[in-house]
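for the writeup, i need someone to sanity check this before i put it in the appendix. the sequnce is what the collaborator sent (i think, or maybe the updated version? ugh). structure was predicted straight from it, no edits. if anything looks off just tell me and ill rerun, i have time this weekend
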Amino acid sequence: MAYSSIIDVFYQLEALAFFDIVLPFLLIFAVVYGILTWMNIFGDNKAVHVIIAIVLGLLSVRLPFFSQFLAEISPRLGVGLTILLGLLILVGLFTPDKSRGVISWILFAVGAVIFIIILVQSGNVLGQYGYGSGYFSEQIIGWVVMVAILIGVIVAIVAGKGSGDGSKGPAPLFKLSTSAKE
């Protein structure tokens, strides 16, 4: 069979259920095998790691829910990672070195908000298929974003305040004095 474009190859792979079965299996296999190897629970016995990873990978693709979940979350995750990458580039270009610590926490908070939005939107779509609750709406997402921004601002203000005496680091909880007048 001659393929006229790469799109025809993707259609053929989709007809073979490559994206619904093979790729999710490989993803779960690789993640589980990597975690088991890193944690070294069973020692250097790689055969046990492989068997456990294969079993969990096959169990994960047994029902169509996991494939549908990956099909819903992957594009949103790609958009979220692109937004974070753009923010990281802008922060790297325009932020002085001494304020990067606070900016890192703000970017972490933005990433957490993006992750929550991705999960909520994916849950809503899967809820329409009968796999979830589907209770989240755009108003709840807005409230989650506002609360996350508020928490981020509070953390930035608290982290930005020094002890006031010119020393670096947080203020001590108890100050021990050596003189009797204090």
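The chain has a mean pLDDT of 78. The CA atoms of residues 20 and 67 lie 5 Å apart.
thx in advance!!
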